[in-house]
Design goal:
By secondary structure, the protein is α+β, with helices and mostly antiparallel strands. Helices cover 21% and strands 28% of the residues. Helix 6 runs parallel beside helix 7, helix 10 packs parallel to helix 11 and helix 11 packs parallel to helix 12.
């Protein structure tokens, strides 16, 4: 008892921001659906259990730590269902310092690791070898880096995210570890990271860092484990990190992390071989292997944990998309961009003028344009600056393209892979090499000198390991990924702080990128035009399961791309006006921007008028069109395909967009689920012709919507309260 009391006095005395004692209302679950209704409650941290525990909650999820005899996470719950995600106690983190492993916090002595009873906590002890808890502080979330807002974004975007933060401090033998948590208002998302501070008189080698260890309730309990039948991982948590690279989706880009492992302490599991993957350990595959000098602090990557509350694929997808909007709100920037394949002054200025006239907001000097951002010649920079000034005067942002990975530099400047491995793109410059450092120096100078406000960085760093020592930034294999990741992320964060719109064909969203490819096969843009239209809507349907509409770019080949000749391209634009319209509608109608790649947006006045009209329609309905989508019928060229934009926070809470791939006009009655619009009982449906009608919502939250769609065309219906 004395031990517990003394620890609590130390904790309370050390905390600069105190947690208030919880009352029943602080810990009560939100009585509603956070994806549809405003939660109202703010995230908070509270003392409970007579001061022996801290609870972080926002009414949707909660996480609880026992503070003595050592700090340990003892509960993590989805409050909508009441489900407990955890079955056992584990350390808060684990480090390897100077070759010696050390746990941070935690308790030992749990009699059964299948579940955790509160009374067991009274008997559990601190691990004598673990770093002890010394205090906590309640904080507010801070911005991870500057987001300079210079263009349209979602009206409710907030940075830093609204919520609460908590720091748990641990210390031993001149080393202090602070474990940070954030929980955000209105979403079941935690963020976690740690810092290590060296108060010793000599440097410390941080060999390995494991920032999260959770003994999670398993997905299922198969008795056997048979070859060729994988054991399922838990689905109660969606886990990502900002240490993501080398992929177009979060699974591939986070393959360096998020390791679901077997749990050797879980002796009572049903699986006889004890092979169930039910222990989450978030740690890099190698490294970071950092030497931390005396008096300095190391900061880890961040982990983001979305707590699932069950549901079908659509609900799970919407939850992920809401998470991105919260923790990386710059992804809601969604400018219309013309990608120009020339740097000739007359061509670029004409493209800028056409973009301004038609309502496009950005021009990018695309791959194949001849732009060289590594050119530091003053005359060249002056010429590009003149183009930027021309664009700015017309309200258009100008930017361009640079290639990094897949280049071979030579002279010892390329990544040298470990035995049995190879670079993701065939070859890759080492970012920590002399060439790599000079490359980023030139790019920074280019942006400062010209005022570019858009950047397409092709072949970004994909996570390649490098066995070469490259002092002072890189010691060798074990720290090579960590060092190069920091180089690229520092650059991206710097760009975001300048207001640069960042397009990267990789998963750098959490480091400042706004856009990655939606997911398409590049050579498909050499197919006949009619096939491209179907592929466009298929790609968007598939890509928006994991991305918001604004997170993924598509492609519209105004000029030839990957072959295909005249049958594949839109130029001359006037000759293929209707196809051009269909491609614009197939993208903008689903809230998606595309790489409109060529020399111009129009070649005749009627093409100009069409582009202006379609862009004007998009901007008139922009907020709902850029909202998330509910997937209806995937395009197959056989009948109508459709998707439903939903946003219960807007006056127009839904927009049904329907496409007809057939060569004849069709009328269809569609059964549309409006649950995620927040509309109940009755819906006011306003079609394209403006003749509103009232629809009755069925018990399954569906309405019957009759639509007539012209041959090869599109129609739409706005949904609002009656």
């Amino acid at each position: 008892m004395c031990r517990t009391s003394c620890v609590l006095l130390l904790v309370l005395g050390a905390a600069g921001g105190q947690a208030p004692v919880a009352d029943a209302s602080d810990l009560a679950p939100f009585d509603g659906d956070w994806l549809v209704e405003e939660v109202g409650r703010k995230a908070g941290v509270f003392l409970s259990d007579e001061g022996r525990s801290l609870v972080m909650t926002n009414g949707i999820v909660s996480r609880t730590w026992r503070l003595a005899p050592n700090a340990a996470c003892v509960s993590m719950r989805a409050l909508r269902t009441g489900a407990s995600l955890l079955r056992a106690v584990r350390p808060e983190a684990r480090l390897v310092l100077d070759g010696e492993p050390i746990d941070v916090g935690g308790l030992i002595g749990q009699p059964n690791h299948a579940y955790l009873l509160p009374e067991w906590l009274e008997q559990m002890k601190p691990d004598p070898g673990a770093m002890p808890f010394v205090g906590y502080e309640v904080l507010k979330p801070r911005e991870r880096f500057l987001w300079k807002r210079v263009r349209h974004h979602a009206p409710d975007a907030a940075w830093p995210p609204r919520g609460i933060a908590l720091r748990l401090d641990f210390a031993r033998d001149g080393v202090k570890v602070s474990v940070f948590y954030e929980l955000y208002d209105g979403v079941p998302v935690f963020s976690k990271w740690l810092t290590v501070t060296n108060a010793r008189e000599r440097g410390i080698e941080i060999d390995r860092v494991t920032t999260e260890i959770l003994a999670v309730v398993e997905h299922s309990n198969p008795v056997e484990h048979r070859a060729g039948v994988p054991l399922p991982k838990p689905t109660s948590l969606h886990v990502e990190t900002d240490y993501a690279m080398g992929g177009f989706n979060h699974e591939h880009a986070n393959r360096w992390m998020n390791f679901w492992r077997t749990d050797p302490q879980y002796g009572t599991q049903v699986n006889y071989a004890r092979q169930m993957p039910c222990l989450l350990e978030v740690s890099p595959m190698r490294g970071p292997d950092v030497i931390l000098p005396p008096g300095e602090t190391f900061t880890s990557f961040r982990t983001f944990e979305l707590v699932r509350d069950g549901g079908d694929r659509e609900r799970r997808s919407l939850a992920v998309r809401r998470m991105y909007r919260t923790v990386a709100p710059w992804v809601t920037e969604n400018p219309l961009i013309l990608h120009v394949v020339s740097t000739r002054e007359d061509v670029v200025k004409r493209a800028i003028d056409q973009a301004a006239e038609c309502g496009f907001e950005m021009v990018s000097l695309s791959f194949g344009s001849g732009l060289n951002m590594e050119n530091v010649d003053e005359a060249y920079l002056d010429r590009i600056k003149g183009l930027v000034d021309h664009a700015n005067a017309r309200g258009v942002h100008l930017g361009g393209y640079s290639l990094l990975s897949s280049r071979r530099i030579g002279g010892g400047n390329d990544v040298v892979s470990p035995d049995g491995e190879k670079p993701a793109h065939g070859s890759c410059p080492a970012l920590t090499s002399p060439w790599g450092q000079e490359y980023f120096k030139k790019l920074r100078a280019f942006f400062e000198r010209t005022g570019f406000l858009q950047f397409t960085h092709d072949g970004s760093y994909p996570g390649d390991f490098d066995v070469t020592a490259r002092p002072p930034l890189q010691r060798g294999l074990e720290d090579s990924q960590w060092a190069q990741w920091n180089v690229i992320c520092d650059f991206y964060r710097w760009l975001r702080g300048r207001g640069v719109y960042l397009r990267v064909p990789d998963y750098y969203y959490l480091q400042g990128s706004s856009e990655c490819g939606m997911g398409y096969r590049e050579v498909n843009w050499s197919l006949p035009r009619a096939q491209q239209v179907v592929h466009t809507r298929q790609n968007i349907f598939d890509g928006t399961w994991s991305k918001t509409p604004s997170m993924g770019w598509m492609f519209v080949p105004l000029t030839q791309y990957h072959g295909g000749g005249a049958a594949a391209t839109i130029e001359p634009l006037d000759k293929h006006l209707e196809h051009y319209r269909r491609m614009i509608d197939s993208n903008l109608g689903l809230g998606v921007q595309a790489v409109y790649r060529g020399h111009r947006l129009y070649d005749t006045s009627r093409v100009r008028d069409m582009v202006k009209e379609r862009v004007g329609w998009f901007k008139e309905h922009r907020h709902i069109l850029e909202s998330d989508v509910v997937h209806g019928r995937r395009a197959d060229g056989q009948d109508v395909d459709w998707m439903l934009h939903v946003n219960p926070r807007l006056a127009v809470k839904g927009m049904l967009v329907v496409y007809n791939p057939l060569e004849r006009q069709v009328t269809r009655e569609l059964r549309v689920n409006v649950y995620y619009t927040g509309l109940r009982d009755r819906v006011r449906a306003t079609p394209e012709n403006g003749q509103a009608r009232e629809l009755v919502v069925s018990r399954d939250f569906s309405v019957r919507v009759s639509v007539t769609v012209p041959a090869g065309g599109m129609t739409w219906v706005k949904l609002s309260g009656s």
